[in-house]
Specification:
heterodimer; A: alpha/beta; 6-stranded mixed beta sheet; B: Pyruvate-ferredoxin Oxidoreductase, domain 3; two-stranded antiparallel ribbon; 5 helices
Chain lengths: 406, 181
């Protein structure tokens, strides 16, 4: 679908990523919001309530008794053809887990924002990506934003992706709890949201509950048919890879901002490339730019699309490096390589004779501080690994007490 | 050039709002800015911190501030509990709600009796003087990182009517009364 490029007038507002998401939900004209409060997500839905209360958004707000119900209500609303939204974090996402699979299996284009947070026990209200990574296999298209502006833009893109006929899958837009959810930054939002609504018109031409055309959702599928249903999700994910890029390119044409599926900096003739995700990319980038000025051949990349995993782009982006260092923010316990994204990058390069060495590092668990110095230390270590010519075969747990690496 | 600021106060005094208002003012001036609380579970009365960054260029970094250029202290009693100048740069600035120089430090220090100004203007909630907007006036006097007009505009956008007027007046008075100490 070709969209005419038009002159968009912007307001420059100081917004946290939570508020930016609420603004996007308003501008993209969501019909039903169901949610249950959980730190650090709560102000997303608080702000949306305000928009509904003062008449800026015509939507139904459903206050539910748990996150399990929050997503169930969103699925039910979506089944009627409504544009549904929910938001959560941490234990809330865990409690939703059963419904995550139902939303995708029923092919409901729900969009959910996740202000990523560590998991209990012990209780941590702070950030890491343990919650999101647990949802890896739930067949949700998953974007990870790196700024409040991108959080805003990604919600709008998410509805276009979710509702496109060749995808019809729910979408998560994730971002760092606290590090982004509670940080105020300048965000451009359009003066007139008509332009957003024209970019992301609602798709009513889909299977939905309709009294004039009765239909059943969520029936049993016996062994003769279940597999085919699941294979359709495999195909839908493949299509989503293409769709995410298309929508982003179109968004860039209309609004002047796009992100691609991997953001990069300083890759040219880089021997070492660091790969991470979310808001700490900015801290990484700042550190890498300084190291570049000092002549270190090092670059950095940010994974924006987690599911479907952008394997082709990973090869294109990282294939030229001698050593790729994946800085993960969650732990897959018991695995030799326990960084979820590191595992994925390794499997992407498996069998490739020209593959770079790949090293897995864990940072920021429970929001253990990651500063530019942390990044510089990892880079220092990485150059020693490069000299040795052999990457560690186990994940490095950077910055944990009592553990150090030669 | 990027300026990093740390606010010290007690839960309920409005340190987080002060950081947010400062950033609102910077954004009104077309600058880039970032405000964030200390990422923790805050309680009324307990020592809290909030942070802000202001720059002419987009701010990429998303990490807590360890070496601020400016420290603003909202509570005169907090000097006894917290080392407020921890990490403060040698050429940094300390802005204190205090009648006299609150601690012996080798950085430029500015003082204002913000508690009195807040009380005079009846900026009191549940018996507590709320000094955040007052201290923003002091910060502007000490550092000129944004203009007083922008701070007042930001205050009026956040608080309407009489409350906005009183807070704006607090910033103005502090701007007049703040001096190096």
């Amino acid at each position: 679908m070709a969209v005419e490029t038009k002159e968009v007038k912007w307001k420059r507002l100081p917004l946290s990523s939570n508020y930016a998401i609420a603004y996007a939900v308003k501008d993209v004209d969501v019909d039903v919001v169901s949610a249950y409060p959980i730190t650090p997500q709560t102000t997303v839905v608080e702000k949306i309530s305000e928009f509904i209360a003062n008449g800026e958004l015509d939507a139904e707000m459903i206050h539910v008794e748990s996150e399990h119900s929050a997503l169930s209500a969103a699925v039910g609303a979506s089944a009627t053809g409504a544009r549904a939204f929910t938001a959560t974090a941490s234990q809330g996402l865990e409690l939703m887990h059963e419904i995550l699979h139902i939303a995708s299996g029923l092919r409901m284009p729900v969009v959910m924002s996740v202000a990523t947070r560590a998991l209990s026990a012990p209780i941590s209200i702070w950030n890491d990506y343990s919650d999101l990574m647990n949802a890896r296999d739930a067949s949700w298209v998953t974007l990870i934003a790196g700024s409040a502006q991108e959080a805003y833009d990604s919600i709008i893109q998410a509805y276009r992706i979710a509702e496109s006929p060749e995808v019809m899958l729910p979408v998560i837009v994730a971002y760092d709890g606290y590090i982004m959810s509670h940080t105020y930054e300048p965000v451009l939002v359009p003066e007139d949201n008509t332009v957003v609504r024209e970019f992301a018109p609602k798709n009513f031409n889909r299977f939905r509950l309709d009294v004039d055309r009765p239909m059943t959702f969520g029936t049993i599928a016996d062994p003769k048919w279940y597999y085919e249903f699941k294979y359709q999700q495999v195909v839908a994910m493949r299509n989503a890879y293409k769709k995410v890029k298309e929508v982003d390119e179109e968004y860039r044409e209309v609004f002047g901002r796009g992100y691609g599926v991997i953001e990069t900096c300083c890759l040219e003739d880089a021997d070492i490339v660091l790969l991470t995700y979310g808001g700490i990319y900015g801290t990484f980038k700042e550190a890498i730019e300084k190291l570049r000025e000092n002549g270190k051949k090092v670059g950095v990349a940010r994974l924006r699309l987690w599911r479907p995993f952008p394997a082709e782009d990973i090869v294109k982006t990282l294939g030229g490096a001698k050593l790729v260092v994946v800085a993960d923010r969650a732990i897959s316990y018991g695995a030799r390589i326990s960084g979820p994204v590191a595992l994925e990058v390794m499997s992407t390069f498996y069998g490739d004779p020209d593959a770079p060495m790949i090293m897995s590092v864990i940072v920021g668990i429970g929001q253990r501080t990651v500063t530019e110095n942390t990044v510089a230390e990892i880079v220092d270590y990485s150059f020693r690994v490069l000299e040795r010519g052999k990457a560690p075969r186990e994940t490095l747990y950077w910055g944990v007490r009592g553990v150090s690496y030669e | 050039m990027m300026i990093e600021i740390r606010f010290h106060g007690r839960g309920g005094q409005g340190a987080v709002t002060a950081a947010n208002l400062l950033v609102d003012a910077a954004i009104l001036e077309g600058k880039y800015a970032q405000a964030f609380p200390h990422f923790g579970a805050e309680r009324r009365g307990a020592p809290v911190v909030a942070f802000a960054r202001i720059s002419d260029k987009p701010i990429q970094v998303h990490s807590q501030i360890t070496n601020p250029d400016i420290v603003v202290v909202l509570d005169p009693k907090i000097f006894e509990l917290v080392n407020v100048v921890e990490g403060l740069k040698n050429n940094g600035i300390l802005v204190a709600n205090s009648r006299d120089k609150p601690i012996e430090v080798n950085v430029k220090t500015y003082c204002v009796n913000a508690t009195k100004i807040a009380k005079d203007l009846n900026l009191v909630i549940s018996g507590w003087p709320v000094v955040n907007t007052t201290m923003l006036g002091a910060l502007v006097k000490a550092s000129e990182i944004v203009s007083l007009d922008s701070i007042i505009e930001a205050i009026k956008r956040s608080f309407s009517g009489k409350l906005g007027e009183a807070n704006a007046e607090a910033a103005r008075r502090a701007y007049m009364e703040t001096r190096e100490c």
